[in-house]
Amino acid sequence: MEIKIMKNILDRNQNKADEVRSLMSTSNVLMVNIISSPGAGKTTLLERTCEELGSKFRIGVIEGDITTDRDARRLKKFDIPIVVINTEGGCHLDSHSISKVLDLFDLDALDFLFVENVGNLICPSQFDLGETFKLAVVSTTEGDDKPAKYPMLFREAKAVLLNKIDLIPYTNFNLENFRSDLRHINAGVPIFETSFTRGDGLESWFKWITRQVTALR
Amino acid sequence: MEIKIMKNILDRNQNKADEVRSLMSTSNVLMVNIISSPGAGKTTLLERTCEELGSKFRIGVIEGDITTDRDARRLKKFDIPIVVINTEGGCHLDSHSISKVLDLFDLDALDFLFVENVGNLICPSQFDLGETFKLAVVSTTEGDDKPAKYPMLFREAKAVLLNKIDLIPYTNFNLENFRSDLRHINAGVPIFETSFTRGDGLESWFKWITRQVTALR
Fold first, then answer.
1. Contacts of A9 in chain B (CB under 8 A)
2. Are A117 and A64 in contact (CB under 8 A)?
3. Could you tell me which of A167, A189, B79, B188 has the fewest CB atoms within 10 Å of its CB?
4. Closest-approach residue (CA) in chain B for A41
């Protein structure tokens, strides 16, 4: 019974996701579904990316948050369209909530649509939003065992951003174990090893994401 | 439709949780439902607690994990009963999965039953397992805004353990903001500020949890 309902929910989500994906494709918008645990660095990634690429590309953001608009307020300093979706306790965004707010964007005037999902390493990976691809963000302070313990997201992600590498000396994080587990789950997935405070790895990320968006043209 | 189903699921969960709670009460077992984001320190808390209290109290552990038994293996060095529940993708434990494994414990031979829930700051807080109380674990590297952004768990928790305080100097974590947000959500909740690597805060935690279990007698 519960399984059937879950299947119905996922089917309805998939149909709407296909609509969203087709809309993005028609408008040449690269839609990135950013997924991580709470506090891994999703919003800071968006801040750095807007700073660097905001003058070269037209960026829009959807902020998924349970109850506040704190993340959106951090992005207010950039002159970009931002829409907040409050899930009111819900643990993930779905394609219907995305579809409902797309009218608030002028898609033809966008290159990127970044979606910051709710902070959760599990549920968001099960709901296709119609994104071009999923980006997994994970921080070293969460431990090197995260890909093995939460494989769904890491299997689906087109790229993995490993953040807070400046904190490795203060933890028992083992980079080789992390990379090796990840290779077992998703061989060949690009890994960006970043520190947003020190700036490590950001150049590679900017180059890579720029290549993704220019490939759409 | 989906709301009605969710209500049914939660009602059935609640009935079973009431059964579990009554069983714990009859057997004088303190059952603690430990909830946090991935990598905040739940398993290490159990390691430290078993080291310190394992000779004074009889401890049992249920390990909730999506797919591996890695956390359980970390606890194998202690001579205690451990049961792993793999949720196979599920984002939380529920009272039915707990109830099914309780037969594997001799409850009359236990003082504590610690349940390490799946690493997720959202969904586990919505499912009563029949626990005596919920313990929220959160780490400084996740940021000081977590109580405000994920209020459900922090509202329900009987105590909050703020871990990795040794890493505060390397982050922009603001302890006053954290405490003040938390007080708004759950005034008077005890906060244990810990570093499992340095040992800070553990004495207070051991004393407090010992008081909780002796109060049952």
1. 2
2. yes
3. B188
4. B142
- Structure tokens, B82: 């451990």
How far is residue A82 from each of residues A65, A134, B20, measured CA to CA in Å?
A: 13, 19, 46
Q: How far apart are CA A69 and CA A31, in angstroms?
A: 21
What is the β-pairing status of strands A59-65 and A112-116?
parallel
- Total residues found in chain A within this entry: 217
Distance, in Å, from the CA atom of A112 to the CA atom of A28, rounded to the nearest integer, reads: 9
Pairs of CB atoms within 8 A across A/B: 112
Closest Cα in chain A, distance from residue B20 (Å): 22
CA atoms of B139 and A142, how far apart (whole Å):
9
Neighbouring C-beta atoms of residue B63, cutoff 10 Å: 26
A50 Cβ contact list (under 8 Å, min separation 6): A59, A75, A78, A80
B125: which chain A residues are within 8 Å (Cβ-Cβ)? none
Mark yes or no for CB contact A146/B39 under 8 Å: yes
Give the Å distances, CA to CA, from B1 to A76, B4, B5, B35, B126: 37, 5, 6, 29, 19
Name the nearest CA neighbour of B209 among B112, B88, B99.
B112
For residues B196 and B45, the answer to whether their CB atoms sit within 8 Å is: yes
Q: What's the complex ipTM?
A: 0.92
Q: Do A149 and B9 touch (CB under 8 A)?
A: no
A37 contacts B38? CB cut-off 8 A: yes
DSSP three-state, residue A137: strand
From the list B68, B142, B166, which residue is nearest A38 (CB)?
B142
Handedness of CA B188, B14, B130, B116 (dihedral sign): negative
Which residues touch A150 (CB under 8 Å, ≥6 apart)? A121, A122, B38, B66, B119
Chain-centroid distance of CA A85 in Å reads 15
Q: Per residue in A49-81, pLDDT tens? A: 999 999 999 999 999 999 999 999 999 999 999
Measured between CA atoms, how close is B211 to chain A, in angstroms? 30
Considering the entire predicted model, what is its pTM?
0.95
Q: What is the pLDDT of residues B124-156, one digit of tens each?
A: 999 999 999 999 999 999 999 999 999 999 999
